[in-house]
UniProtKB/TrEMBL annotation:
This is Cysteine synthase. Residues 12-302 form the Tryptophan synthase beta chain-like PALP domain. It comes from the Eukaryota. It holds the Pfam family PALP. It comes from Aspergillus nomiae NRRL (strain ATCC 15546 / NRRL 13137 / CBS 260.88 / M93). SUPFAM superfamilies: Tryptophan synthase beta subunit-like PLP-dependent enzymes (SSF53686). CDD domains: CBS_like.
Length: 316
C-alpha cells in the first residue's frame, strides 16, 4: 500500500506554493531539449503572485512596518492585487488597490470578492500603455500617505524575492537531473529574479533568460510600447531586475504568445494566460538552441480562468 501524500493544513496560506512541474509533450518539436513548466495557476488565487503577497505582508509584519489596523495599499494590474487581497483577507488588513480597466474584469472582481477597495484608472485605449503603470503608482503613493497605511510597492520591494526563492527551491527538488536554462517574462521582475538567485547559487551553469513583449521592448531596446500581455512589459526597467542574475533577454511577439496559450490548452491541457504562452514560446526557442539531453524550465504564471471572458481563447 502506498502512503498518501495529501495533507491537511490549519491555515490556507500554507496552500501557497508546492505546485506541480510538468513536462510538455506536444508543443515541443523533435530534436529539442526537454521543456518543463511549473503550474503556478494552482496557487489559491490562481497565480504565482500568491507567493510574493505572502512574503511582502509577512516580512513587513516581522519588521513591525505593518501592524494590526493598518491599510495595505498597492498599484497593480490585479494579479498581485488579487493575491494581496487574499492575504489581507486572511490576516484582517484592509486593502486599497489602484488598478485599471486595461486589465481583465475577472481580476478586478476577484479583488472586490476578497473585500478590497478598488480604485480604477481609466485606460482610454483599453491597452497597457507606457504611461499607465506610472500613473497608477503615483495614485497609490498619494493614497498611502499617513502612518496607518502600508504601501506594498511591488516594483521596489525586495520582500517579493523571498516568496519566489521558494519557487526556485521547489524546482531544484522537482528536477534533480539539473536545469540547463530557465526563462520568464518580466513585470516587476520578482519571479525571474527570485528563481534566478536560487538557480545561480545552486547550479551556476544554468542560464537565465528574461522575456518581454516585442512591442514593448524596454529591456532589449530601451523603450516601452503598447501591448495586451497582462502583468509584463511595464514600459520601464523594474528596479529589481539585476543584470548580474540573467544571461540574456528575448522579446517575443504577442501574437505567438497568444497562439501558444491556445495550443497549451488544446494540446497539453494547460489553461493559462498570455504571459505563460510567451514564456513557453521562449522556452521552446531555448530548447531548440540547446538540443536533446538538456532541460529547459519555465513557468505557467497563472490560470487561464482569469481570461475566459476576453478574446484570448477565441481569437485566431
Ligand atoms: C499574469 C502575469 N504574468 C507575469 C507577471 C510578471 O511577474 P513579475 O512581476 O514577477 O515579473 C505578472 C506580474 O504581475 C503577471 O500578473
Amino acid at each position: 500500500m502506498t502512503m498518501s501524500t495529501i495533507t491537511s493544513t490549519r491555515n490556507i496560506l500554507d496552500a501557497v506554493g508546492k505546485t506541480p512541474c510538468v513536462e510538455l509533450h506536444h508543443v515541443v518539436p523533435d530534436g529539442c531539449a526537454r521543456v518543463f513548466v511549473k503550474l503556478e495557476g494552482l496557487n489559491p488565487t490562481g497565480s504565482y503572485k500568491d507567493r510574493m503577497a505572502r512574503s511582502v505582508i509577512e516580512e513587513a509584519e516581522r519588521r513591525g512596518d505593518l501592524r494590526p489596523g493598518m491599510t495595505v495599499v498597492e498599484a497593480t494590474g490585479s494579479s498581485t492585487g488579487s493575491s494581496l487581497a487574499f492575504v489581507c483577507a486572511i490576516k484582517g488588513y484592509s486593502f486599497l488597490v489602484v488598478s485599471s480597466d486595461a486589465f481583465a474584469e475577472e481580476k478586478l472582481k476577484t479583488m472586490s470578492a476578497f473585500g478590497a477597495t478598488v480604485d480604477i484608472v481609466h485606460s482610454p485605449s483599453g491597452k497597457i500603455t507606457p504611461e499607465l503603470i506610472p500613473v497608477m503608482r503615483d495614485r497609490a503613493k498619494e493614497l498611502s500617505q499617513g502612518e496607518d497605511y502600508y504601501y506594498a510597492d511591488q516594483f521596489n520591494n525586495p520582500d517579493v524575492l523571498v516568496g519566489y526563492e521558494g519557487l526556485g527551491r521547489e524546482l531544484l527538488e522537482q528536477i534533480p537531473e539539473g536545469i540547463d536554462a530557465f526563462c520568464g517574462a518580466v513585470g516587476g521582475a520578482g519571479m525571474v529574479m527570485g528563481v534566478a538567485k536560487v538557480l545561480k547559487e545552486n547550479q551556476p551553469h544554468c542560464s537565465v533568460t528574461v522575456l518581454e513583449p516585442a512591442s514593448a521592448p524596454a529591456i532589449t531596446k530601451g523603450h516601452g510600447g503598447l501591448h495586451s500581455v497582462e502583468g509584463i512589459g511595464i514600459g520601464f526597467l523594474p528596479p529589481i531586475l539585476d543584470k548580474q542574475l540573467y544571461d540574456s533577454a528575448l522579446a517575443v511577439e504577442e501574437s505567438e504568445a497568444r497562439a501558444m496559450s491556445r495550443r497549451l490548452a488544446k494540446e497539453e491541457g494547460i489553461l493559462a494566460g498570455t504571459s505563460t504562452g510567451l514564456n513557453v514560446v521562449a522556452g521552446i526557442e531555448l530548447a531548440k538552441q540547446l538540443g536533446p539531453g538538456k532541460v529547459v524550465v519555465t513557468v505557467a504564471c497563472d490560470t487561464g480562468l482569469k481570461y475566459v471572458r476576453g478574446n484570448l481563447y477565441t481569437a485566431e
